[in-house]
């Protein structure tokens, strides 16, 4: 009997946590190359500081960052002090066409706890705090 009570209590708690997560905001990042820092906390909505030219659109419960960059054939080069990203055909001889990561947008995003994060066709560097998905 005790196991049944524990199981029912666990299922109830899981359902409550899932419902809370489903009610959260959604942050979607697409076609983006750059640095992001997502800080979660007791915020009522998603706010983006200093989008550096990246297109940001917001509707009820959904924030979209779409920089319109094509990520096909992306190549990264890194050293101890820098990261460079090149777009286009790669070859062993390719030495040009790379841009330093600092030349791409940097986003500071503040989001409520239990925010859902969707990332599509992007090259991201940075940190994301605990999120719902």
TrEMBL record:
Instruction: Name the UniProt key words of this record, in alphabetical order.
Output: Signal
What organism does the record attribute this protein to? Hellea balneolensis
Origin superkingdom: Bacteria
What is the protein's given name?
Uncharacterized protein
- Residues of the signal peptide: 1-23
């Amino acid at each position: 009997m005790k196991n049944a009570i524990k199981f029912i209590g666990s299922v109830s708690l899981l359902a409550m946590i899932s419902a809370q997560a489903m009610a959260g905001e959604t942050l979607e990042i697409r076609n983006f190359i750059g640095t992001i820092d997502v800080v979660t906390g007791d915020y009522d909505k998603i706010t983006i500081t200093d989008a550096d030219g990246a297109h940001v659109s917001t509707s009820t419960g959904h924030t979209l960052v779409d920089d319109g960059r094509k990520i096909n054939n992306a190549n990264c080069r890194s050293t101890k002090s820098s990261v460079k990203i090149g777009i286009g055909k790669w070859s062993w001889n390719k030495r040009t066409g790379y841009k330093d990561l600092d030349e791409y947008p940097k986003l500071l995003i503040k989001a409520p706890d239990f925010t859902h994060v969707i990332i599509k066709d992007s090259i991201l560097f940075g940190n994301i705090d605990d999120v719902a998905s």
